[in-house]
Amino acid sequence: MIQGQGWGRRRRGYRIGRFLEPCLLLLLHREDSHGYDMLERLEEFALGQETLDSSVVYRYLRDMEERGLVTSSWDTEGGGAPRRVYQLTKKGDEYLAWWIGSLRRTRDNLDRFIHAYEAHMKQEEHFLPEEERTMELDDRI
How does residue 2 score in pLDDT terms, banded at 50, 70 and 90? Predict the structure, then answer.
C-alpha cells in the first residue's frame, strides 16, 4: 500500500462543489429557504457544516443567482436580523432536471467501471488482500 499520496483529498473541494449545486437546487425545489437553513439540510446529502464552510454555500447561491437559476429577497419579518431567502426559478428547475440526467449517466458509468473492476479482480492475482480492496480509499491512506 502506498502511503501519503493523499488520493481523494487534493480535489475533494472541487467534487463537493460540483455536487453542491444540484443539492442546493433540489432543496430550493422543495421550498424557499435561507442559506443557513440550507447548510443544515445539506446533511441529507452527506454535506454540511463539517464538510463545507458556510461561505462556499453562499458563494454558490450568489453565483446561481447571477446565472438566473435562483432569486432572492430579504425576509424582514419576525425577530432578528433580516435574512436573504432564496427561491428556485424556472431556469433553475430546468437546470436541476439536466443535473439529474447527468448524475444518472455518471452513476451508470461508475457502475460499469466497478463491475469491470470486480470481474477483473476475480480473475487475477492481486497486490492487495480482498478486505483492503473493498475498504474506502481514504481509510487506507
Answer: very low
Query: CA 19 → CA 4, 46, 74, distances in Å?
Result: 26, 11, 27
- Domain holding 130, by residue range, is 12-140
Q: Which residue is listed with cell 466497478?
A: 114
**Residue 73 belongs to a domain with what CATH number?**
1.10.10.10
1, 140 Cβ separation under 8 angstroms: yes
pLDDT at 132: 65
Torsional sign, CA 24, 27, 28, 33:
negative
Which residues are within 8 A (CB) of 137 and not within 5 positions of it... i.e. 6 or more apart?
7, 8
